[in-house]
Write a structure and sequence with these properties.
This protein is an alpha/beta fold. Helices cover about 35% and strands about 25% of the residues. The protein has 5 helices and 7 strands. A 7-stranded mixed beta sheet has the order 2-1-3-4-6-5-7, sandwiched between helices. It starts with a strand and ends in a 7-residue tail after the last strand.
């Protein structure tokens, strides 16, 4: 395990993060994100945050570390899969072993499960942060492209899925 880890933000910056930088992130991250930062820092896992309209994205060529994809579809409005570069989203879904679709307040257990799965299986995981009105489009796309794979649905009472 090396001392540099890769964190991609908005798919525009792919930068190694030092252990000191990740320690700082651990101390200041929202509680639900701490397991992801820990996986990056301690278990040789990469993380890629993809925001709406970020354009095309893919993992860095030649990297063999698993990636936790964090898809941010919960800003001013949720746009569903259509709000993202679909070829890139499809590629990320197909490459992932398990998924969390979060349309409620963040549930720390869902984020921890995806971090543990990436670290333990050495396979990609994908977390979609969205709103209840986009649960079904995200679930449908994941089920179509990755049938029979685990999906953790974190929804509000009376959610759509």
């Amino acid at each position: 395990m090396g001392s540099r880890h890769h964190v991609t933000v908005r798919t525009l910056i792919h930068t190694p993060a030092t252990r000191a930088r990740l320690d700082h992130a651990m101390a200041h991250a929202a509680p639900h994100l701490r397991p992801i930062v820990e996986a990056v820092r301690d278990h040789d896992v990469d993380m890629m945050f993809v925001s709406q309209a970020a354009g095309s994205f893919r993992t860095a060529a030649g990297r063999k570390q698993p990636v936790i994809f964090l898809i941010g579809d919960d800003f001013d409005e949720a746009k569903g899969p259509e709000g993202f570069h679909l070829s890139s989203i499809r590629r990320a879904i197909r490459s992932s072993q398990c998924f969390a679709v979060v349309s409620s307040a963040p549930q720390a257990d869902a984020y921890a499960a995806m971090a543990i799965a990436a670290a333990g299986t050495r396979r990609n995981t994908l977390i979609v942060e969205t709103r209840p009105e986009q649960e079904i489009p995200w679930l449908a796309l994941i089920q179509k492209l990755a049938p029979r794979r685990f999906i953790w649905l974190a929804t509000v009472e009376g959610g759509h899925a």
